[in-house]
Amino acid sequence: MKTVLITVAALLTAALLGVAGSPPVRAARTPASGRVPVPSELTADDVSFTGYGGLALHGSVVAPRKTSGPLPGVVLVTGSGAGVPRDHLLTEAVEFARRGLAVLIYDKRSVGYGDFRRSYSELADDALGGVRALRARPGVDPAKVGLWGLSEGGWVAPLAASRSADVAFVIVVGGNAMPPIRQQLWNETSALRRAGASGSLIDHGKRNFARLGADAGLFAEAFFPAEDVLGRVRQPLLGVWGEHDLQTPPGDNPPLFARALRRGGNVHYTFRFFPGADHGAHTTPDGGVTRGEALAPGYADLVGSWVRDATSGKAPVADAPAPPRQEYRSVEVSPSPWWTSAWAQLAAFMLFVVAFAAYPLVALVRRVRGRTVRPVSRWAPRLLSGAGLAAALGLPFYLFYLMAAGRAPDPGPALAGRPLPWLAVQGLAVAAVAAAAGTAVAWRRAAGAVPVGERVRLGLLVTAGAVFIPWAVYWGLLLP
Q1: Residue 155, C-beta contacts closer than 8 angstroms, at least 6 positions apart
Q2: The predicted structure's pLDDT at residue 9
Q3: By CB neighbour count within 10 A (0-12 exposed, 13-18 middle, 19+ buried), where does 50 fall?
Q4: Degrees (nearest 5) of the Cα angle 284, 285, 289?
Q5: What phi-psi label fits residue 139: left (phi over 0), alpha (psi between -120 and 50 degrees) or beta?
Q6: Cβ atoms of 146 and 76 closer than 8 Å
Q7: Mean pLDDT by 10-residue block, N- to C-terminus, for the chain (480 residues)?
Q8: Is the backbone of residue 472 left (phi > 0), alpha (psi -120 to 50) or beta?
Q9: Four-residue CA torsion sign, 364, 366, 370, 372
């Protein structure tokens, strides 16, 4: 029975949440094999190393062809997605190598990584395997090898650095000092706000939908303790954000990074913000919606000079200018208490389906059999069963539709910032609450006036109506 319940919960929540994960998941491509193409002034050599669990990982080291001595090195840790190939970061690797660095890019693991399962700890061990491989390369100074992390890699690289003194420095691009669930919620609600939505859909519906996925275990690493990890990082850290980052809050995160690092006694950090740049510090022609091929002007130069300084005893000291203006603030998201957990939500949903659907079905069966029972109330139970069922089904359907739309949601026509589909579900909820009160009165008056079976039928409907009221408040259906 427990297995059945777990399966039902997983299927229901999967239907509600689709493939939501911590950061937006990039579609995986076929991993690159063989040497990556680089300009003639650079070299690209294939390497293999061992990651978490003994998994063999493959990559390429891109470096200047002509050098005057051992080079600093950097291992690039990509963003989300299973099996992301090394050439996804080839632009960064080429530009950093042109600035005098030996750069390791590698095919990301797909083993043990998917939409609903990932481990930053395992990815950190993979990254440390890359550090060991790059430190062992001829022509690389083993004391000057660090980590660079993009998006999801911005959680992974600091975690790896906190585990090993072999990491000389850390660079994060579009990184987060907040849990993934807070970042992802900001990502999705900001897109809805740009589309004209506001109110309880965002403040309650979307937030609780994200928590539901985390409760059900379908939002991997949702509450990863990013600030705690940063508090254990002792290496110099460079944080880079594009001012048009639509996936990570570029205004909220730098102060959180500074607070966490200083709490651990680390003041050797530098933050920089690039105008006209997107989440990955690439140029963007349309405010972050489309990613250009080129890196933001000055970004690669910054990385090259900063690494040379940080690895030569010139570590920066709290170099953090004011972050860019951020149109919408992110909000903290805590785990759900037991009464709003995934199990409680599943139980409520099943109650609504059974109680609200059973009322008209029983009436239909009676009519087919030629049996009639005088109703104690004609309008209230019928309205409660119809409106309650429609609201209970309409809420997850609409929220899933918005989530499936990804970074370009269309919430529909809006009235005072409230999308009409959301207003429709809210109207159904209000009607169901009013009908629940009428049904409760009818059920109380029915004592002794109707058969026991009819009282049980009405009692189940009243119970569902009573549960429906706090459920609707929680989801924002009874709030502006």
Answers
A1: 22, 120, 149, 175, 176, 180, 221, 224, 226, 229
A2: 43
A3: middle
A4: 65
A5: left
A6: no
A7: 40 39 37 73 97 97 94 97 96 98 98 91 98 97 98 98 98 98 95 94 95 91 97 98 96 97 97 96 91 95 98 91 92 93 95 90 64 66 94 96 84 93 97 93 69 75 95 97
A8: alpha
A9: negative
Q: How far apart are CA 52 and CA 108, in angstroms?
A: 12
User: pTM for the full model?
Assistant: 0.88
> By three-state DSSP, how is residue 359 classified?
helix
CB 46 within 8 A of CB 34: yes
Contact assessment for residue 97 and residue 124, using Cβ atoms and an 8 Å cutoff: no
- Contact present, 363 and 286 (Cβ < 8 Å): no
The token pair at 318 is 């709290």
Please, which contacts does 291-299 make with residues 24 or more away whose CB atoms are closer than 8 Å? Answer: 293/91, 294/91, 295/91, 295/92, 295/95, 296/242, 298/274, 299/240, 299/274
Quick one: tokens of 205? 């519906």
Evaluated on CA atoms 174, 180, 184, 185, the torsion sign reads negative
Longest alpha-carbon distance in the chain: 98
pLDDT at 376: 60
- Nearest 5°: phi and psi at 273? -130, 130
Q: Residue 273 has what pLDDT?
A: 97
Give CA–CA dist 309/74, Å, rounded. Answer: 14
The Cα–Cα gap between 22 and 329 comes to 18
Q: Tell me the torsion sign for CA atoms 192, 194, 197, 199.
A: positive
DSSP state string for 284-347: -TTTTSS--SSBPTTHHHHHHHHHHHHTTT----SB-PPPPP-SS-----PPPPGGGSHHHHHH
How much is the pLDDT for 448?
Answer: 58
CA–chain centroid gap for 396, Å, is 18
- Please tell me whether residue 368 adopts helix, strand or coil conformation: helix
* Whether CATH 3.40.50.1820 fits 31-179+224-310: yes
Q: Strand locations in 83-139, DSSP E?
A: 102-106
Q: What's residue 133's pLDDT? A: 98
CA angle 335, 336, 342 (to 5 degrees): 115
Whose tokens are 């061992």? That residue is: 50
Length of the chain: 480
- Domain ranges (residues) in the chain: 31-179+224-310, 338-474
CB 36 within 8 A of CB 44: yes
φ, ψ of residue 229 to 5 degrees: the values are -65, -45
Give the Cα separation of 211 and 341 in Å (integer). 8
* The pair of three-digit structure tokens given for residue 15, joined into one six-digit string: 């239907």
